[in-house]
């Protein structure tokens, strides 16, 4: 598994769906210098755990917007599958009402670049192409800053849903550091004391 933290987020241009609109050329580059990005991958449309995550991001969309963060979802499904899922009511397993973009990684290249693609393409003894497992994305999540650099990543196996609260907490920690130059200790929450990077600051924090 590649560690992308501290590196430029892999660039891509792909089709995406937002609301009723199919976007022919969607890229995260449009947000550089303008917004933070939470890019999250999920395995498949029309499944069970995935809609709980997509709806939860939508439920908290105001929290992300207030922090200047653009939420973007991505799976290896086509734009037509995304569109159909977005037009299916929640009580029928759909994600109707989700407003943020969903990227169609139909060629698997984005998932591969972010190193969240499950399964493997191999050659058998006769040089025939075979696929071991399914070529779908793990539950990867990447926080990308305004400069286009990955500052946080987490990858869950497919049965394990993520925590929206932890995602927001990490955004708050990054923005606190950028604003104040203070580092954030374990379990830090917005409003808590943070720490300066010098020895005096660390000492004063732990003396409280």
UniProtKB/TrEMBL annotation:
Location of the active site: 50
Alphabetical list of PROSITE patterns matching this protein: THIOREDOXIN_2 (PS51352)
One GO BP: response to oxidative stress
Membrane-spanning parts: none
Record key words, sorted: Cytoplasm, Disulfide bond, Oxidoreductase, Peroxidase, Redox-active center
GO cellular component, one term: cytosol
Record CDD domains: PRX_Typ2cys
The Thioredoxin domain, residue ranges: 3-176
Top-rank taxon, per record: Bacteria
Keyword Disulfide bond carried by entry: yes
Keyword field contains Cytoplasm: yes
Cellular location(s): Cytoplasm
MF terms in GO: thioredoxin peroxidase activity
Job of this protein: Thiol-specific peroxidase that catalyzes the reduction of hydrogen peroxide and organic hydroperoxides to water and alcohols, respectively. Plays a role in cell protection against oxidative stress by detoxifying peroxides.
Family: Belongs to the peroxiredoxin family. AhpC/Prx1 subfamily.
PANTHER family associated with the record: THIOREDOXIN PEROXIDASE (PTHR10681), THIOREDOXIN-DEPENDENT PEROXIDE REDUCTASE, MITOCHONDRIAL (PTHR10681:SF128)
Name this protein carries in UniProt: Thioredoxin peroxidase
Organism from which the protein derives: Rubritalea profundi
């Amino acid at each position: 598994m590649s560690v992308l933290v501290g590196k430029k987020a892999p660039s891509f241009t792909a089709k995406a769906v937002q609301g009723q609109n199919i976007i022919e050329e969607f890229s995260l580059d449009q947000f550089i210098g303008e917004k933070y990005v939470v890019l999250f991958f999920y395995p498949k449309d029309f499944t069970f755990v995935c809609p709980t995550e997509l709806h939860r991001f939508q439920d908290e969309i105001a929290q992300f917007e207030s922090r200047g963060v653009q939420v973007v979802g991505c799976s290896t499904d086509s734009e037509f599958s995304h569109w159909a899922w977005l037009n299916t009511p929640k009580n029928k397993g759909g994600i109707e009402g989700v407003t943020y973009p969903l990227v169609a990684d139909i060629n698997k290249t984005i998932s591969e670049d972010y190193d969240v693609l499950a399964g493997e393409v191999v050659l058998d003894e006769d040089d025939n192409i075979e696929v071991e497992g399914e070529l779908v994305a793990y539950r990867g999540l990447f926080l990308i800053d305004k400069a286009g650099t990955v500052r946080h990543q987490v990858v869950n196996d497919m049965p394990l849903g993520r925590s929206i609260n932890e995602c927001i907490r990490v955004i708050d920690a990054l923005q606190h550091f950028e604003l104040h130059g203070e580092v954030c200790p374990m379990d830090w929450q917005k409003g808590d004391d943070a720490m300066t990077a010098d020895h005096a600051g660390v000492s004063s924090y732990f003396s409280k």
